[in-house]
Amino acid sequence: MTITMNRPEAPAGPVKLDRHDLRAAQIETLETPRMKYGLLSRMMFAPVDLLYGKRGSFTKFAMLETIARVPYQAWERVGYWAVHRYRGRSALARRVFERIVEARSDQDNEQWHLLIMQDLVQRDGHRQSWLLHRAAPWAISFFYYHVSWILFLVKPEWSYRLNAEFEDHAEHSYMEFVAENPELEHRPDPGAYAAEYGRYDSVADLMRQIGHDERVHKLDSMAHMAAPRLTD
Ligand SMILES: [Fe+2]
Ligand SMILES: [Fe+2]
User: Fold this and answer.
1) CA distances from 83 to 52, 158, 199, 231 (A)
2) For residue 218, which ligand has an atom nearest its CA?
3) Which of 98, 159, 165, 197 allows an S-S link to 41, with CB 3.0 to 4.6 Å?
4) What GO cellular component term, any one, is given (predicted)?
5) Ligand 2 centroid to 32 CA: how many Å?
6) How far, in Å, is the centroid of ligand 1 from the Cα of 84?
7) pLDDT, the chain, mean
8) Is residue 16 part of a domain?
9) 129: CA distance to ligand 2 center in Å?
10) Distance (Å) from CA 17 to ligand 1 centroid
């Protein structure tokens, strides 16, 4: 006999919105000013804009999604270290594990974004060079990963703030891209990952959903900034 266990530790990720709510979410983002980005964020955004252009594109978003999951990986790693450290305090270790679960779920969500962007890049036949799409994302990810866990150990709210800024940048970039490219309203969602990510009325709505996910990531990081430490 086999026993099937529910997996409450595998959350579904940010909520999926319908057509009407996606449009409302886009308007809300466009009417909300961007956060004030700090030095570390600007150190990442400046080379990205220089190498991939200031305006959004599927290739630029694919690059950004490659580095988007990095802080969540860093927090996951620090979390496992903390679970081990607090092994004698089960309630605290459990709270740390809940943060690990959240970090893993957000990594998965960013991975779907990356797969969707890569699919759109390939459908449009855009070239991706080794330098711009392998070496540069690796170098920026390397920097981002180590900054994320070091900041977390020094002062967790700094690490959450850096991610909130990155997510804010992503949310606005997606929503502005949709506004600047009205032809996307008439382009059907190819649905390459419809079973896992949902199917949308158009590529515009698909991008709005991704933009809204980024907002959820941002708000989660901001909530953790307010209560960064799990220890009492
Ligand atoms: Fe993303
Ligand atoms: Fe994100």
Assistant:
1) 39, 21, 38, 12
2) 2
3) 165
4) membrane
5) 17
6) 30
7) 92
8) no
9) 24
10) 16
